[in-house]
Specification:
The complex is a heterodimer of chains A (674) and B (271).
Chain A: H1 23-28, E1 32-36, H2 39-45, H3 48-56, H4 65-70, E2 75-78, E3 86-89, E4 92-93, E5 97-101, E6 104-105, E7 126-132, E8 146-152, E9 164-172, E10 177-188, E11 191-202, E12 218-231, E13 235-249, E14 257-273, E15 279-296, E16 306-325, E17 330-350, E18 357-379, E19 384-399, H5 402-409, E20 418-432, E21 437-448, H6 452-456, E22 460-462, E23 467-470, E24 478-489, E25 495-513, E26 526-547, E27 553-566, E28 579-586, E29 591-600, E30 618-631, E31 634-643, E32 665-673
Parallel strand pairs in A: 5-8, 23-26
Antiparallel strand pairs in A: 1-7, 2-3, 3-4, 5-6, 7-8, 9-10, 9-32, 10-11, 11-12, 12-13, 13-14, 14-15, 15-16, 16-17, 17-18, 18-19, 19-20, 20-21, 21-24, 22-23, 24-25, 25-26, 26-27, 27-28, 28-29, 29-30, 30-31, 31-32
Chain B: H1 2-18, E1 37-44, E2 49-55, E3 60-61, E4 63-73, E5 84-92, E6 97-98, E7 102-103, E8 115-121, E9 129-138, E10 141-149, E11 151-152, E12 159-163, E13 170-177, E14 184-194, E15 208-214, E16 226-232, E17 235-242, E18 247-256, E19 259-270
Classes of the chains: A mainly beta (674), B mainly beta (271).
């Protein structure tokens, strides 16, 4: 549904470097997508072609992070409710990708994936969103699918001894949702402070055609505070605290909702940066975070048995990064990181007259990880460059309590601790053929360890296929071989780009029915466990174009397609169909007018055993209007529009339970900068 | 005798080496009856022996009850480590009397200074008066001590009985383990006795037992259980798995050869 705020902040369809501020890292990250979320920093950091895109996608402060993610062609989202969508990069999801907050690891506390960590971050918290695929996707953590890194915004020093800020407010009709956000910045000499508060409240939304979707409401508040201190010309110290509390979060596709989901994220960083020296940048960050999650069935009718399902995740970690300029043509990016994640989730069911039924759904377990990675960049000449990336991880996963071991012992899993050494490596070659055509090719070998649910999950109910899932600690790591080729053509002010990728995953973790094990969940279809299948394939393409046919017109379009199958040529689950999003904007003056279409093809390739079915194609139309003006000496931005203008009743292929998405939705947002 | 000589010798050397100053007292904290409840004591007069009877819990419930008997020389007060003990449990219901299944100590040699034995009390004391007579042979002398026992019914019964479909005989099934059930793998142990007469309840090793745990509130079972199999003396051992706390029902079917003897029995285990 959240497609409705379409004015995303920015969508960089280009494959080029990102952080203009950081030239070397920019060169290193050729296959990154970086979404800049903050207009203020965008202007100072972007190079000229990107700034055009930035100007095209004006920030919409009411967008949730999920809205923004959903606009990226590489990403798809598994939806269980109006909120808490699970991101996938090129259909790699869950444990196959890293979702990091400013390089920090954080793990959701829900056994049923109701809280992907993206729900604990608001766009206002962020400076950029880095999306790294294949060849670069493992530099901050072993991964076969890539990394989403949400970079937390820093306090700025632009206005000394002056409080500056942005206040945003919005309303949407489909879910009667309110959005209020305040961001403040203050700098005083060497000190700078940045704080933000965001509040959202959504009611049950109405789907296309007018039906109300029960249990789709949510409410949340998010706070962040950052303090930065400059020490000399080259050093800075920064402390960040981020808190996010959500409650009464409905999941229409699941049998339970969420009573409370909260995260506490804290970090302390030291940065040394001197572009003139060989050691251009050195960063050290220590962090800790904690997530609590409580599922709630008290609002649901016809609950067979009331149950409590709390979960907790605690992570501490440390990482250090260094950028070294070897000479004018070569540079090196080094990273070492270590983290420890503890997870525990339980379920207590209450039958009147009997003792409570208690079990661990994530038996207490810990994953300790230590890794080092390096990226070596060699700019041969102005048209060619090589990049080599390598990473090695030592990862230990173990059950930590006697209670957990006893419980896992039922499946003969007492020896549930596992040590893995993961190796990731890639080679990337970029060649500029002429001033308008640029090509890039990469191959990568990547590995990832199974997740806690895949290893230790104990009767985790999946409401999409209706099975209870039991973990398998003897799973082998998944290993993938990937290749990617991309080319861009950018004549004058236009740009067209195409990327094609192919991955062959060995020891792909799939599920298999355990006919002899009885279900735990009342009404479940059966029990499944995980196992490695010999191999699977995922391949696909992404295309994007940015055209300026006339002076005041902009046209932006993205397209993605993914094809995936297992070793028996059966389709893999969770594969979104062909999708295209196109926008055309006319901006004669301070007012812009924009029309958008969102088209998805039918998905006829689905996995029945994963609870999937055929999904119909759909086309949506959105119209938008924006105005920038100065009122009372304040810079005011007003945006309004209507999404799903024709009130189409539709759902996407990855939506659990085929719950219809929001219908016609009008919105109004006001943003005031001071 | 040779073995006991060596045991005594090794004990003596330990005592001499480490506890010479307190050789008469037991090692603190390692009393053989630590954690047990003494339910009675008395004298088996003819055998010149003092008899102390211990149980693992202060209350004796209907069903399989472990008893631990400590014997002391009634003159010197020193422990008796070697004796033959014969139990005779008896229920006096006024109009009639009956005995119950029991297990005498497996050996004349004390285990950790005690003689472990057991009685399967078939009913609570509300129905009449239970007594247990302990006959003791020490060094060729015989004596007897009898004591009353108060038996109450537990909340969840640990004793079942059925009349076998295949032969019409009545059998008693006593639950021995799990006594402290937990989530995970639990030892499952039952004992089966055949009612030959009011006074004779021999152990029955001839059954094949099929077990299936079930959580009645949710209608699910648990995986990877091991059916109890006969290990002698009427005892059957297996493994029962509980995937969560709460009320479990462990269903048992009894087969004798290819014939079904009973498929209606279950034990409720709640924790």
């Amino acid at each position: 549904m959240m497609k409705r705020f379409i004015q995303i902040v920015i969508l960089l369809m280009i494959v080029v470097n990102s952080r203009a501020q950081n030239k070397n890292a920019g060169l290193l990250k050729d296959s990154n997508r970086v979404v800049i979320l903050d207009e203020v920093t965008v202007i100072s950091k972007q190079n000229i072609p990107q700034r055009r895109l930035v100007n095209f996608f004006k920030a919409n402060n009411a967008s949730t992070l999920e809205d923004i993610l959903s606009r990226l062609p590489e990403l798809s989202l598994t939806r269980r409710g109006a909120y808490g969508m699970d991101p996938a990069i090129r259909s790699f999801n869950g444990g196959q990708i890293n979702v990091l907050v400013d390089g920090m690891r954080i793990h959701g506390a829900c056994t049923d994936k109701m809280d992907p960590v993206t729900i604990y971050i608001e766009p206002v918290n962020l400076e950029t969103l880095e999306l790294q695929t294949a060849a670069n996707g493992f530099s901050s953590g072993a991964s076969i699918g890539g990394t989403i890194n949400m970079k937390i915004a820093e306090p700025d020093y632009l206005n000394n001894k002056k409080v500056t800020g942005i206040f945003s407010s919005g309303y949407q009709t489909a879910a009667k949702s309110f959005y209020e956000s305040l961001r403040l910045n203050y700098a005083d000499g060497k000190w700078a402070f940045r704080g933000s508060v965001t509040y959202r409240k959504n009611s049950n939304y109405r789907s296309g055609g007018g039906e109300k979707i029960n249990f789709s409401q949510y409410e949340k508040i998010n706070y962040s505070l950052s303090v930065k201190y400059l020490q000399g010309n080259y050093n800075s110290i920064r402390a960040d605290v981020l808190m996010d509390d959500g409650w009464n979060i409905g999941y229409p596709a699941l049998p339970m909702d969420v009573g409370y989901a909260g995260a506490r994220i804290g970090s302390l960083s030291f940065v040394h940066e001197n572009r003139q020296k060989h050691l251009a940048k050195f960063q050290l960050k220590g962090y800790a975070n904690q997530v609590h999650h409580y599922m709630d069935d008290t609002h649901r009718p016809h609950v067979a048995m009331h149950m409590d399902m709390p979960g907790v995740s605690k992570t501490i970690g440390l990482y250090s990064e260094a950028e070294i300029n070897i000479n004018k043509k070569q540079s090196l990016l080094l990273r070492a990181d270590a983290s420890s994640t503890f997870l525990k989730a339980s379920m207590t069911m209450y039958q009147p007259g009997q003792l409570p039924m208690y079990m661990l759904t994530w038996p207490n377990n810990k994953k300790n990880q230590f890794g080092i990675s390096s990226s070596w960049l060699w700019q041969i000449d102005s048209s060619m460059k090589w990049q080599l990336n390598a990473r090695v991880d030592y990862i230990r996963a173990a059950l930590t309590s006697e209670e957990a071991k006893n419980q896992a012992g039922i499946f003969d899993y007492q020896q549930a601790s596992k040590n893995n050494i993961l190796k990731n490596g890639s080679v990337q070659f970029t060649k500029k053929i002429n001033n308008t055509i640029k090509t890039n090719a990469s191959i990568a070998y990547t590995e990832r360890v199974p997740t806690a649910s895949e290893r230790y999950g104990f009767y985790l109910f999946n409401s999409n296929d209706g099975y209870d899932y039991i973990g398998n600690p003897y799973l082998l790591p998944e290993k993938a071989l990937q290749a990617e080729i991309s080319a861009s053509y950018s004549p004058a002010r236009n740009r067209v780009q195409l990327s094609v990728f192919y991955s062959r995953i060995h020891h792909y973790i799939s599920s298999v029915t355990e006919a002899n094990v009885s279900t735990m969940t009342i009404g479940a279809n059966g029990v499944k466990t995980y196992r490695n299948i010999p191999h699977a394939f995922i391949s696909g393409l992404e295309a994007s174009c940015f055209l300026k046919p006339l002076q005041k017109f902009d046209f932006v379009s993205t397209l993605r397609y993914t094809y995936a199958k297992d070793y028996k040529d059966e389709p893999l689950p969770g594969i979104a169909p062909l999708k295209n999003v196109s926008s055309i904007r006319y901006q004669p003056n301070k007012i812009f007018y924009q029309v958008e279409t969102e088209m998805a093809a039918a998905q006829n390739r689905f996995q029945v055993s994963a609870g999937e079915d055929k999904t119909k194609s759909y086309t949506l139309w959105h119209v938008r209007l924006g105005l920038n003006s100065i009122l009372f000496k304040k810079n005011i931005e007003i945006q309004t529009g209507m999404e799903n203008v024709f009130d189409k009743n539709y759902h996407e292929h990855l939506d659990w339970g085929n719950i219809a998405r929001p219908g016609r939705n009008a919105y109004l947002q006001i943003k005031m900068m001071f | 005798m040779k073995k006991s000589f060596y045991v005594m010798l090794s004990w003596a050397s330990i005592i001499v080496l480490f506890f010479s100053s307190c050789s008469k007292t037991e090692i603190p904290g390692t009393s053989p009856t630590a954690g047990y409840t003494k339910i009675t004591e008395g004298y088996a007069t003819g055998a010149a022996a003092k008899v102390e009877v211990y149980t693992t819990a202060p209350v004796i419930y209907t069903g399989y009850t472990n008893l631990y008997i400590a014997l002391y020389d009634s003159v010197s007060g020193s422990r008796i480590e070697n004796a033959n003990i014969q139990l005779t449990p008896m229920m006096d219901m006024g109009s009639m009397q009956h005995s119950s299944p029991f297990e005498n100590p497996a050996s004349a040699q004390a285990v950790n200074h005690l003689f472990p034995c057991s009685v399967v009390f078939l009913m609570p004391s509300a129905a009449g008066n239970w007594s247990v007579s302990v006959a003791v042979w020490v060094n060729g002398k015989w004596g007897s001590f009898s004591f009353p026992v108060t038996v109450t019914d537990p909340v969840k019964s640990t004793l079942k009985s059925f009349t076998a479909l295949n032969n019409g005989t009545k059998y008693f099934v006593a639950l021995i383990n799990p006594m402290q059930p937990h989530v995970g793998i639990n030892d499952m142990e039952i004992a089966i006795y055949k009612k030959e007469s009011m006074m004779s309840y021999p152990a029955e090793n001839g059954f094949t037992v099929l077990m299936e745990p079930e959580m009645p509130a949710m209608g699910h079972g648990s995986p990877n259980n091991v059916n109890p199999v006969a290990i002698g003396n009427g005892h059957y051992k297996g493994k029962v798995n509980f995937t969560m706390t709460g009320l479990w029902q462990v269903n048992l079917d009894f087969m004798m050869g290819a014939d079904l003897a009973d498929d209606t029995q279950f034990f409720e285990i709640e924790f």
